[in-house]
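user: can you give me the structure for this one chain? tokens are fine.
assistant: on it. calling the predictor now.
[tool input]
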Amino acid sequence: MLPQEIIRKKRDHKPLSAEEINYFINGVTSGEIIDSQTAAMTMAIFLNGLNRKELITLTQAMRDSGDVLKWKGLNGPVVDKHSTGGVGDKVSLMLAPMLAACGAYVPMISGRGLGHTGGTLDKFDSIPGYKTTPDNNLFKKVVKEVGCAIIGQTGNLAPADKKIYAIRDVCGTVESIPLITASILSKKLAAGLDCLVMDLKCGNGAFMEHRKDAEALADMIVGIANKAGTKTSALLTDMNQVLGTSVGNALEVAEAVAYLNGSARDPRLHTVTIELCAELLVSGKLAANLTEARTKLQNALDSGKALEKFAAMINALGGPADFCDHPEKYLPRAPIIRPVYAEHNGYVKSMLTRNIGLSLIGLKGGRTRPDQAIDFATGFSGFCQIGDYLSPERPIAFVHARSEQDFHQAEMEIRLAVKLDEKPQKNLKNVIIRKIRSNKK
């Protein structure tokens, strides 16, 4: 087979055979197929799509490009969550230890920043010593002993997806529903899960801006994952504003610690986190219903057990033992931290959330190419929410920047991204839009 002929076939709207898909993915994994050919194939798929049979074959080929983990001897369900990405989305950092505190096991394989959205691994890379790519033996050990481990794709877990993921980020093929589905499920199925919950973001800060697109992706993922034997549900959640109050890697880690220790819990962030966790506790039969699940999760927070799990995970993967006691001692800090005020008083009416994510890239807190080093310290803290009243006493946010030039650029961008109104906002959107527990609407 010739890679260029397979690309040509998909370019011309023709379905690929299982043999062609497996050949191509094996070539991506081995390096026989070069990056430019992979980029061309992702663009052909982006433009022309995949039918259901092609998508199942692609997902399984990417899953089987490396190890598929098996879990034995655990006294609880193996569960995980995946988000399609948002601005300020640090839910995974709290969700994994909260579930572990309730008796679940969470082997979470996460990714780096993709497009304008932040990546969970980039957040953990801001913690000194934390190993985001341990070998499988350490990964399994931490999951079994602590109850959760958040890592990146090692060379042996869905390695084909790791290569394709990085290429999609810089060649304009991020938003493809088939590629997103195969990417997510290849990693999750390789982790050997019993249950999965999807957080499908919908809004101007999400890859799927329109509800119909987010629902289409949710239905596709839920249907294919359940068919593959992993009990899966999905929540559509609002991404028309920053989730939580911070955007940026170290800043979001600090917000996660504050959430877990109870010193600060943004209401929208809390709702999303609790509801995703509750879905998994019910799916994993650790709670009889959502009400019982929410109670267990709140107890895990109030007792400090979830914070203890987070601290234990960080330490077990190489981070400081006292990180959660003194995160400010370890997290990098930008030299310039300054508030940005709106040009006039008013109530926050809307945000151009994607632009806020792009502004983080301008602060070097995100990437424009796969191999780019990022600045973990930069970003925004104290970010306003829709409905907040902005005045000389209440800024839009605090900008954390490396230089005066970067600060002023970000200042201009977030002023343009946040829209105000003279009147208080009514009928504010619920952060949970819809729950999907099967591929039937």
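assistant: here you go. The first strand starts at residue 79 and ends at 83. The domain at 332-421 is CATH 3.90.1170.30 (Aldehyde Oxidoreductase; domain 3).
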